[in-house]
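Supplementary notes for students who missed Thursday's class. We covered one full example, reproduced here. Read the sequence, then the structure, then the short commentary at the end.
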Amino acid sequence: MFRGQSMSKELIFHVGLGKTGSSYLQQAFFPKLHGVKYIQTRRFHKFEKDLDRAPDGKFFLSREFDQQLERESVRISNYDKDAKIIVVFRPQAPWIGSQYKRFTKNGMHETFDEFFDIDNDQGLWKQDELYWMKKIGIIEKYFTQKPLVLFQEDLKEEPYKFFDDIANYMGARYNKDEISLESIHKARTDKQLKMMRKFGTIFFKKNQVLSENYFINRLQSRIRQLKTLTVIFSSVFFPDSYFDDIELLPKEQLKKIAEHYVDDYATARAYARENNPKY
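Structure (token representation):
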């Protein structure tokens, strides 16, 4: 229950994962849902206060959690353990590849193997982080209801069915004419990311820790964003020969990752078929 309040408020929470279409959903789809109050992502840091002050009704929040999933599940469940949870996955190999590109874009200058090591598990991200069934287990541990488990490839292949699954789960509705299927973000090129990796050691401190204060954190993030854009767009002034020919995402490593997690991904798919509501 909502910290002693009556059950006249209902909470639905989309918890990511990151790099599974979350930004698109947060900008193009979630705000267009009718019959539910969508609380913008930027207000997550104070969602408890917002909900305490809000009148009765149905509320929907969205935030991308990866390594933070258990910590944030504790926080959300402490507020409402009966909250409905939506989580989106994708195959592990392209997912960790996208994560690596995101971290590189934001100033990280490690190689892919230093970021994720499928052979010896010595990377910054550990192999345990890519077991989707363990993440489902975290959600089941802290909440009374089974999550709605969806997959990014379904969003790409059958977007309106994907939207229907979400809308039906939360008892909301939407108008197809209001939804754009255009991508939100343009992916960075390998050349731009190699530029960032080359000059990241100059512009960014290794393992820099951002402030826990929300406003200071936002300021630090904006400054970091300005630096990254400066480095990335300066790549146009450098010829291709300036950069090495080493693959940003080694194909052989991605193949190993796909093979390592194939059973876990299939099990997550089976979980969704068995437990997602049928409408």
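Commentary. The mean pLDDT is 89. DSSP finds twelve helices and five strands in the chain. If anything here is unclear, bring it to office hours.
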